[in-house]
Specification:
Order of helices and strands: HH
InterPro entries: CbtB_put (IPR012667)
Number of domains: 1
Largest sheet: none
Protein name: Cobalt transporter subunit CbtB
Low-confidence stretches: none
Distance between the termini: 57 Å
């Protein structure tokens, strides 16, 4: 494998790996958190961004 081919493979693989790890982390975190805590966090984000939620 040449250096250029290896760099191209890494340029495609690393973002996909990052997305997979991030996605699994989010799923794991939300699976262990209580539903009320998730609701409160989403509600606070809606208020912080100015999105109407009521």
């Amino acid at each position: 494998m040449t250096t250029k081919t290896l760099a191209s493979a890494n340029a495609r693989f690393l973002p996909a790996l990052f997305a997979a790890v991030l996605g699994l982390g989010i799923i794991t975190l939300t699976g262990h958190v209580q539903a009320q805590a998730l609701h409160d966090a989403a509600h606070d984000v809606r208020h912080a961004t100015g999105f109407p939620c009521h």
